[in-house]
Design brief:
Two copies of one chain form a homodimer.
Chain A lengths: L11 H11 L4 E4 L6 E4 H17 L7 E5 L4 H12 L3 E4 L6 H11 L1 E7 L3 H4 L11 E5 L13 E3 H7 L13 E6 L9 E5 H12 L11 E4 L11 H8 L2 E4 L6 H10 L4 E4 L1 H11 L8 E4 L6 H10 L5 E5 L6 E4 L11 H8 L4 E2 L4 E5 L14 E7 L23 E9 L5 E6 L4 E3 L2 E3 L1 H9 L4 E11 L3 E10 L7 H8 L11 E4 L13 H7 L7
Parallel strand pairs in A: 1-11, 3-4, 3-5, 4-8, 5-6, 6-7, 10-11, 10-12, 12-13, 13-14, 24-25
Antiparallel strand pairs in A: 1-2, 8-9, 14-15, 15-16, 17-18, 18-19, 19-20, 21-22, 23-24
The complex binds adenosine-5'-triphosphate (ATP) (2 copies) and magnesium ion (2 copies).
């Protein structure tokens, strides 16, 4: 028997019209070098419709890729909607990628145009001739005095908009592409993920729900997490969908500027990676604010950070887990009523976990080779695998041999996790970073955390190095704090009471700096290359 | 270009597994004549899987209709999920319908079995031989001492469950039918609406969101609105989906019992029709509670009621609008940040409206004949029409001539409304109840409200009666409070300063009672029949 409901597709133009029709008076604030710009969803909607006209003027193909290279701003939000609502595909270029990665992804996605903030134009312009499919460079003047090249390819956003006619939006196929996002490139080349209208719509509803970010007409949402990577964790869609005011930091990403925005604009919800909140803490501590939730993820959220916020700002941090391939938010750690009477330490420990998969994401942990499911006893670990309408099915034109799904249709995350009996996830490590010693696994992340609790240590990264008998053994690469000293033996003595004997690193190497990826994650593949031939001399 | 996301259907078994896997410890409490029963989603899930087995035992067809005839209870929640998750279609029979309507809908839906609460068995059993497709009557013993007939068709729920094997749930087609709900029959025969898995899933996510009921793991939700009509406004799905505890009143629908449940079970969210909250108010006023939201709809929510709750219970009532054909919730009136500084009167006036359509529902007001769109100026009225993935496309085997959609694909609600510039809906009347006088419309609802503000009036219903010159003219049917007196002239004098002159009723008839539909709405079609030949004598 068939349902007799309307066959209305889940498309992004529905979200657009919802904001346009019902939240026209709600504010969009964008910060910038020249101060804050104030607008409303009504103005934004009008401009977005005209931006659709600009794409026609520029001759962008019916499903052409539109590159963006900019900060979180109203204009970026115009692009986010005008693109998919007019049938095009928005490809957000991560401004922090290495030049060769930028060229790689722009060509791989076949971007026809790139919209670039003036403040970051110098990062892009030198590469423009290597980006072979880009025909137009549209500059969005977000302040500053970077020179705009005198080149026929270069156009001005506001001029184009002023000349364009507004267009109607009507997407009919919810399975069509809406966005391309590339992964961070931590473990190899960035991989292209193609979000559909349907997946974006459903992820938006997931992100809005109270077990995630809980956004509604009472909120002012500030995405610190960039729109140029993993779609600002869905907040750029959730805001318009929920009728929440949007507070956009633009290029003003300094910790003090962010804290000022939170306080002065009455921000109720914000989200970003741990290092951001580390920096903002001293600027926010003790000030009056309206925050009700601070979302955080992208890498493990240190318990100490969340507790420092609870003590100094008045609310702990909400941890979420996800990846570009999951749109990106897939789980979060909102504490249930069961914790109402728990003590602070218990709550803090719970908040240090990656949380429970959202409705719409099913998760399992398995032996990566046999796909045998592992028990949810918080001890057994396995590769975390997910399934659901906002999880990716495949990469866009992947490198040979890259397979995203298992033979039984689950998505491989490349993360290793344990799950509590209620399915609350504890991320242990990345598959590629685990160290295989004598047939058993050692978590590099656990070793790093233990080493970083030594007072003289600034950073530590642990990688597996080849070993004739044990296959691999851990090597600790340690950066000391300026002015501090410590010997290998000091580090090992510190570690001994904290980890199992067979986990103890074979050696400690003192290095100047842990190599980082473009987005600031530890680049262990670089360390592994550097120490591939390691032998104690 | 296609999106590259997983093709995972939006089905109700996903919600089921989410609750089973991640919220197993969360409580389900059911009240009853013999006291409260306590359970958890884990137990519920196990029993629900076994209930799937029972359907096989009973030989229910692959997409057979499963009738239910019962209160809000854990067992009803088992039926709600075991049905669609095993491919069947749950048909909730409204226990308050008139006998002939019950027979009509059970036969119209072709129910193969009916699950009935023992406390309401006497309402159903006398009709059972008129329900020609029902082969089994499964009695759920919810207390009381109603005799259970000794008849081969009659089976016991718990016995069947104990003997059944749990089944796996895997629905693959999101467009397949999940539920059948019939309308209240206010304006004619009840009409059958068939919800799909997809529409149920999306409505659930809509209802969870903060602009609606905002349900999450911090909540205990009590649906007072019955599961036997319009799917308990989605709360029976939202609870498991959100990991909210469920508090089920069972047959204990007396105002005092409801107030006790709210207080003693720490209910944070509840919802029901205005008459329910009218009754509960004195029993709740002044008591400590954890309520954060009281949802209300189904008919207009009097401003005075909401204000009385604000003053005596500490929170106003949240109005929602919808109909069986919209699953049923389509709009709600959560006040945005823009009202933060408004005074109480402004807020109360805003809360008296039907609110803003949810993301997922698009609304318009049109001239019902020409489909010409009316402006959103809060003055112009027109038929309210809606569109979206959880709005119905057609009735199930409708009577000849009943058309749900307009020629351009919007759903006719049969309600007349004005819309404010932000699309906030003000319901004026039902199309069928409007009075057409000299080519202009008179709102029966507005006249009734004005008459009911007379201190001697208990109830008033206004209907149009044929008029040779003006086409129709209003007739006021008035019920006086016991012991009170008033003349026609008294009523007209009271009315004169409140409404336009040409709205003044031609006559006032004093009647003993306003005829009601099965579910307690004014039955104006009965009044129109009674006064069809009306002439002043
Ligand atoms: N709460 C969290 N705790 C621990 N790790 C997290 C958390 N959230 C995200 N991560 C890590 O971030 C990864 C997702 O990052 P992203 O999609 O930006 O690219 P990447 O995996 O770093 O790069 P690439 O896939 O190109 O190697 C996850 O797979 C996980 O390893
Ligand atoms: N907040 C509200 N304010 C005013 N009226 C409301 C509100 N919510 C619901 N209603 C009324 O209830 C109707 C939906 O009721 P329901 O689907 O239960 O059946 P019905 O319309 O009464 O019966 P039938 O369609 O069989 O004549 C709406 O069309 C509207 O007239
Ligand atoms: Mg990755
Ligand atoms: Mg109706």
């Amino acid at each position: 028997m068939r349902g007799l409901m309307q066959d209305v597709p889940l498309t992004i133009d529905t979200i657009f019209r919802h904001a346009e029709q019902h939240h026209g008076d709600v504010a969009i604030v964008t910060d910038g070098p020249a101060g804050r710009t104030r607008s409303t969803y009504a103005e934004w909607a009008q401009r977005t419709r005209r931006l659709g006209g600009v794409f026609d003027t520029l001759g962008i193909s019916a499903d052409g890729r539109i590159g963006t290279f900019g900060w979180n701003s109203q204009r970026h939000l115009e692009l986010y909607f005008a693109g998919p609502c007019s049938g095009r595909v928005v490809h957000t270029l991560n401004i922090r990628l290495f030049p060769e990665q930028l060229t790689y992804i722009a060509n791989h996605a076949e971007d026809e145009v790139v919209f670039v903030d003036r403040t970051v134009l110098p990062l892009l312009w030198p590469l423009i001739d290597t980006m072979t499919t880009i025909r137009h460079v549209v500059v969005m003047d977000d302040g500053g005095d970077n020179e705009v090249p005198d080149d026929p390819r270069v156009l001005d956003y506001e001029t184009l908009l002023a000349d364009a006619a507004p267009v109607d939006f009507h997407v009919t196929d919810e399975g069509s592409a809406a966005y391309m996002c590339y992964t961070s490139g931590t473990t190899g080349n960035p991989k292209g993920v193609v979000y559909s209208h349907r997946s974006t719509y459903l992820h938006t509803m997931g992100v809005i729900s109270p077990n995630a970010f809980g956004l509604g007409v009472r909120d002012a949402a500030m995405p610190v997490v960039p729109m140029f990577h993993a779609n600002a964790w869905g907040i750029a869609h959730a805001g318009p969908a929920a009728g929440a005011a949007m507070v956009m930091p633009g290029s003003m990403m300094q910790p003090k500027a962010l804290a000022d925005l939170i306080v002065e604009e009455g921000v109720t919800f914000t989200a970003g990676v741990p290092t951001i909140w580390q920096g903002v803490l001293p600027h926010l501590a003790g000030r009056p604010h309206k925050l009700r939730e601070i979302g955080c993820g992208g890498s493990a959220v240190p318990k100490a950070l969340s507790e420092a916020y609870r003590e100094q700002v008045g609310l702990p941090i909400l941890q979420a887990w996800g990846m570009t391939e999951t749109h990106p938010v897939a789980s979060s750690g909102v504490l249930s009523r069961a914790f109402d009477d728990a003590d602070d330490a218990t709550k803090a420990a719970q908040r240090a976990r990656a949380g429970i998969p959202f409705l719409g994401v099913e998760a399992r942990i398995v032996d990566a080779d046999t796909l045998e499911e592992q028990p949810w006893d918080d001890k057994a670990t396995g590769e975390l695998q997910v399934r659901g309408p906002w999880c990716a099915a495949a990469y866009y034109n992947p490198d040979a041999g890259v397979e995203l799904l298992t033979s039984d249709g689950w998505m491989k995350t490349g993360d290793v996790a344990a799950m509590a009996p209620d399915g609350n996830i504890r991320i242990a490590d990345r598959t590629k970073d685990l160290i295989k010693s004598g047939g058993e696994w050692i978590s590099s992340v656990d070793l790093e955390n233990a080493i970083m609790s030594h007072p003289a240590v600034k950073e530590a990264a642990v990688v597996g190095i080849p070993h004739p008998k044990w296959d691999e053994r851990p090597l600790a690469c340690v950066v000391l704090k300026p002015g501090e000293t410590a010997t290998e033996q000091d580090i090992l003595d510190h570690l001994a009471p904290l980890v199992a004997k067979w986990w103890m690193p074979d050696a400690v190497e003192f290095i100047d700096e842990v190599p980082k990826t473009s987005v600031g994650k530890f680049s262990k593949k670089d360390l592994r290359t550097r120490f591939a031939e390691y032998s104690r001399d």
